[in-house]
Design brief:
heterotrimer, A mainly alpha (328), B mainly alpha (266), C alpha/beta (236), A: 328 residues, mainly alpha, Arp2/3 complex 21 kDa subunit ARPC3, 11 helices, globular, B: 266 residues, two-stranded antiparallel sheet
Chain lengths: 328, 266, 236
């Protein structure tokens, strides 16, 4: 699910952005190395990026359920490009979707890259798909691997969405409700994605058996990737943790006050879990502050200014547009 | 599959669209847009007036870029369903009454829902204005100038270049199926995998042909940027661009950190 | 530069999946010749063309361009003298704008910026596409794309032009423009085509392929009058 800018607050977005940037940097390094032995990867990434973009617009239905969906394609891309090139490709698609089609927010890009691109290509593919498929794929292995990798990858992505939204402090939806909703839904989406991925892989291998040699089969990469991904997430966790601690210490009084205030209206995680409390502090520090300023005249005044400014600019540009159209 | 045609049309329009005045230079527009987003999205949900004041930027930026704010505004409304979808939980859970208009009690929940919608719409408007007045390729070039490595911008340009090509192929394949009576919006899995699988194979073939074309012209792995290769000339920003940068660079933080509505009640 | 010839000696090529695309090809094309390569689909035309600039490496036999055998070491130089225009311009124009595509070759040759600019200007002028310089290939018509694709190759100053179906998918006007353009070139031209009109106007020599072998090779009028050849090509 693409996260919109509306649902994320700046510190979370920037934090996720930093982690995503780190992973992208790694991906760049890995792909540049691959270019040395395989020049074709440049055009393959470009064209498959365009392909995935198009493929995401064609829905499939799962007979018997009446539900339809589209493929995201992380595992599919990774089977032919390898994890890092696939990560880069899927990221580029996310960026284009965000900028041109407003599918996902610009600031929320970091979150989307982590949730949707990183989880499937950098975690689910090397840790789940590759080991199950092994070096001699057959239909059964492909189906099992696709299902497992897609479900887990999507669940991790859903977890990411929940964490990022919750930490942004914009939703009053209780954490437990939110997370059970998201993980439940994404279990089914994961099954769909797994079946779709397997279906394409099987079709492609059947129509062109020799395409298997393009299957990314470098097993040694899998172990290296695990190390890199863990490093990446370690860094990310440090940054996030540091950020939370920083914020928690900045607003001690306001926080005590506000935690009191919210226990009346929203469900506070009443566990002694230190992380949960700290996370909640981040949430509340950005969302609830003591003084409200929703004075009606203030709101109306601001709206009036906007309308006036808009009218002025409209009149000015109207004349210019008339001039340019008469030039044409 | 109206979506395919709609997307294709959007891309074509984006390509053909010429802004009346591409102002400001993307070198200024990009950082200002990002500054705007950072500031906008850091506003706490209860500060509705501050959120509304932030609407000044899209309106004025639109005018500077030579676009119609009305059109941009309407386009930005597309984000509302998503905002409401997530935000609707807030009124359900936050019941503390915050204000009263006449006999209506406005709860904190409704305030935060409205805030989510406002920030969503304004954020989207700033991105729409950025992309439509500069074009995607120009933004990629600007990203490169800001130091974003070429492997990202090259990939973005490549994907952008071939999306239309692949979409055309997809539409052709879909039309062929429609002629045979299989035109639908959704395909059952087996049919879908044959369709998309076919598209996939064609894409792989195409990438090999492109790779051959690249090698035939001496490609050895590095895509060297033509513009930086040809001119080492520093890109000079005009005075009005610098003015734009400085103005918004100060006004935006001002809008974020002070409450302008205090003008209205003494 | 002006003594570039193309010589195939006993060239065979087998694809990785075992398909034998070329069988014992012997061929000599002298500088300045305009050769049409005819044959039905699957005859091996494209495969043969891809050997001319080393994109495919012969499984056996040797390809020699102007005295230089095509090997890993010589490939860069070979690709400067043998320019290839592919069948689908979309495969050849992969940069965001026309000028970037045309400059791609010269920049990869590490030419100084001034010379790159000169080459770009020259190539655009020669193909009549100077006004398209800053356009995206997405906005070009089929004929314009074809001419820009040729410009991308001309910018490298090749002595040999290898073209795969240059007039396919062009309307009459664009086709006429293209044929007129090709007539102005002094390069050696090897053109795989189904367009007999093009052959008649442009080429003085015809090579016919069938099932990976060369079955006819000679003057255009002689070959095209040969009934056996016409049968092979399913023209009669």
């Amino acid at each position: 699910m693409h996260m919109a800018d509306a649902l994320v607050s700046t510190p979370i977005a920037l934090g996720a952005g930093v982690v995503a940037t780190g992973l992208l940097g790694l991906a760049g390094y890995k792909v540049n190395k691959e270019k040395e032995s395989n020049l074709g990867i440049v055009s393959l990434m470009g064209v498959l990026g365009a392909f995935i973009f198009a493929a995401q617009m064609i829905n499939f239905t799962i007979p018997g359920t009446g539900s339809s969906g589209h493929i995201i394609g992380g595992i599919l891309l990774a089977s032919f490009l390898g994890p890092w090139a696939a990560f880069l490709t899927l990221t580029s698609v996310l960026i284009i979707q965000c900028m041109i089609f407003a599918d996902g927010g610009l600031l929320a890009l970091g979150c989307n890259i982590l949730n949707m691109a990183a989880m499937s290509t950098l975690v689910a593919y090397p840790l789940i798909f590759r080991p199950i498929v092994g070096s001699r794929p057959n239909n059964v292995k492909i189906i099992v691997a696709s299902l497992a990798a897609s479900m887990i990858g999507l669940e991790l992505g859903a977890l990411g969405v929940v964490l990022e939204t919750y930490l942004s402090g914009l939703t009053a939806l209780p954490f437990r409700t939110f997370i059970s909703l998201m993980t439940g839904i994404h279990l089914f989406i994961g099954i769909g994605e797994g079946l779709a991925t397997a279906a394409i892989l099987i079709f492609v291998v059947k129509s062109r058996p020799n395409i298997l040699y393009k299957f990314h089969t470098d097993q040694s990469d899998a172990l290296k990737n695990i190390k890199n991904v863990l490093i990446g997430f370690g860094i990310g966790a440090l940054i996030l943790g540091g950020g939370i601690a920083f914020l928690a210490s900045e607003y001690p009084d306001g926080l005590e006050w506000s935690i009191e205030k919210i226990t009346g209206s929203t469900e506070l995680i009443a566990s002694s879990d230190a992380i949960a409390i700290a996370a909640d502090r981040v949430r509340t520090s950005t969302s609830i502050m003591p003084d409200y300023d929703n004075n009606l005249s203030g709101i109306l005044g601001a709206l009036m200014v906007l309308i006036v400014v808009w009218s002025i600019t409209y009149l000015i540009t109207r004349r210019q547009r008339k001039n340019s159209s008469s030039k044409e | 599959m109206g979506k395919l045609d709609k997307v294709f049309q959007t891309l074509q329009d984006l390509e053909k669209h010429k802004s009346y005045r591409a102002f400001p230079d993307p070198l200024v527009a990009l950082p200002i847009t990002i500054l705007y987003l950072c500031l906008l999205l850091s506003i706490p949900l209860h500060r509705v007036t501050m959120l509304i004041w932030m609407g000044l930027y899209p309106i004025i930026a639109c005018a500077c870029a030579g676009q119609t704010y009305g059109k941009v505004f309407l386009k930005s409304l597309i984000i509302l369903p998503l905002c409401i979808f997530i935000g609707i939980f807030n009124p359900l859970y936050q019941h503390s009454v915050v204000a009263t208009i006449g006999s209506f009690n406005i709860t904190q929940g409704w305030i935060s829902l409205i805030s989510i919608c406002i920030r969503g719409v304004f954020a989207l408007q700033s991105v729409i204005i950025l992309i439509e007045s500069n074009g995607f390729i120009s933004i990629c070039r600007t990203m490169r100038r800001f130091g974003i490595p070429s492997f990202i911008t090259d990939q973005l340009q490549f994907v952008y270049r071939y999306i239309m090509v692949i979409l055309k192929e997809t539409i052709t394949m879909r039309n062929a199926r429609m002629a045979r009576g299989y035109g639908r919006k959704k395909y059952p899995l087996k049919m879908w995998s044959a369709f998309v699988g076919q598209l996939f194979l064609r894409s792989i073939d195409r990438s090999e042909r492109i790779s051959k074309a690249m090698s035939a012209r001496g490609f050895k792995g590095e895509m060297i940027d033509y513009h930086t290769y040809i001119s080492n000339m520093q890109h000079k920003l005009s005075f009005s661009n610098i003015l734009y940068l400085l103005t918004w660079g100060t006004v935006l933080p001002l809008l974020r950190f002070t409450d302008l509505s205090s003008i209205f009640f003494r | 530069m002006s003594h570039h010839y193309i010589k195939f000696t006993n060239v065979s090529y087998t694809y990785p999946d075992g398909y034998k695309a070329l069988k014992d090809i012997d061929l000599y094309i002298a500088h300045g010749e305009r050769v049409a390569l005819l044959g039905n689909n699957g005859a091996g035309k494209s495969t043969l063309l891809l050997h001319c600039n080393g994109l495919l490496k012969a499984t056996s036999g040797e390809v020699n361009i102007g005295g230089i055998p095509v090997t890993k070491k010589t490939i860069s130089d070979i690709r400067r003298s043998v320019g290839m225009v592919f069948q689908d311009p979309d495969d050849q124009l992969f940069m965001p704008t026309v000028e970037e595509d045309v400059a791609f070759g010269p920049i990869n040759m590490n030419l100084p910026p001034k010379e790159v600019e000169e080459r770009v200007f020259m190539a655009l002028e020669k193909t009549g596409t100077t006004h398209l310089r800053t356009k995206s290939p997405l906005n070009l018509s089929g004929g314009q794309q074809r001419r820009v694709a040729i410009a991308t190759v001309l910018a490298m100053n090749p002595s040999v032009l290898v073209m795969d179906e240059p007039t396919s998918n062009l309307d009459f006007g664009a086709r006429r423009e293209l044929i007129n353009l090709l007539k102005t070139f002094s390069h050696t031209q090897i053109i795989a085509t189904h367009d007999l009109g093009l052959v008649n106007e442009l080429c003085n020599r015809v090579i016919v392929m069938n099932e990976g072998k060369i079955v006819a090779d000679g003057e255009r009028d002689t070959i095209l009058a040969d009934l056996n050849v016409l049968q092979i090509l399913h023209i009669e």
